[in-house]
Amino acid sequence: MSHAFDIGPVPVGRGQLFLIAGPCVIESEAHVRKMADAIQRITSDLGIPYIFKSSYDKANRTSVKSFRGPGIVEGTAILKRLKEATGLPTLTDVHEPGHCAIAAEGVDVLQIPAFLCRQTDLLIAAAETGRAVNVKKGQFVAPGDMKHAVEKVTESGNARVSLTERGTTFGYHNLVVDMRSLAIMRQLAPVIFDGTHSVQTPSAAGGVSGGQPEFIPLLARAAVAAGVDGVFLEVHDNPAEAKSDGANALDLKNLKGVLETLLAVQAAVHPR
């Protein structure tokens, strides 16, 4: 049985690789617009369907001193204006059930953070908005157990649900990606591979998370070869100065080359 659906002009689970990308957090309206325009030019040239991603609030930062974003009201308004100006579908994280209806006014996809993938009330509230729901697999969850998250969404009347792999806790301060999980979860829903959070080293950099961005292309190539439906990449034009997750972000200048390689891998392994 097909789990395919569409998010605006973006086909999900229909055999065409799509991209979710943008800066981790909304740093300013000007910055997200700059990033959206730059990424849209690249994806348009390459023919890759594209969803813009950025968060209005990063509620799970390691340190209480870390930048969190503009908040739900201003952040949702920024994403809504960006969508209207660019025509791009948009995605943001939600952290509380009460945020879902508000965020849904400005975005096409509500994303459930990995740490919250078991939160029943949050999953149901997101599903009931009618927006597509992307659930990140918890770093502590077996891939087959994500069927429960999928059921919480679908049994709330929303069939547009996808799952995202972002690595599994491997000891302290490290994640590892089990490529088998992509095939296991793909039996449940379309699957997206998060190439940037998968190279995170959680809480390993003195109150913030570190990362190994040099491995983003390697893991993304492997995931596309394994048959994922989409790729999630946090992209920044100046990772060293990013206000969130800069240590594991993909530098904008490297995005086109990475995507070209992923398209070549998909064409070789999964010819349409």
UniProtKB/TrEMBL annotation:
Record pathway: Carbohydrate biosynthesis; 3-deoxy-D-manno-octulosonate biosynthesis; 3-deoxy-D-manno-octulosonate from D-ribulose 5-phosphate: step 2/3; Bacterial outer membrane biogenesis; lipopolysaccharide biosynthesis
Keyword Cytoplasm: yes
GO cellular component, one term: cytoplasm
Keywords per UniProt: Cytoplasm, Lipopolysaccharide biosynthesis, Transferase
Pfam families listed in its UniProt record: DAHP_synth_1 (PF00793)
Coiled-coil positions: none
EC identifiers of the protein: 2.5.1.55
Intracellular or extracellular location(s): Cytoplasm
NCBIfam families: KDO8P_synth, PRK05198.1
PANTHER family: PHOSPHO-2-DEHYDRO-3-DEOXYHEPTONATE ALDOLASE
Family: Belongs to the KdsA family.
Protein name: 2-dehydro-3-deoxyphosphooctonate aldolase
Species for this entry: Silvibacterium dinghuense
Organism classification: Bacteria, Pseudomonadati, Acidobacteriota, Terriglobia, Terriglobales
Gene: kdsA
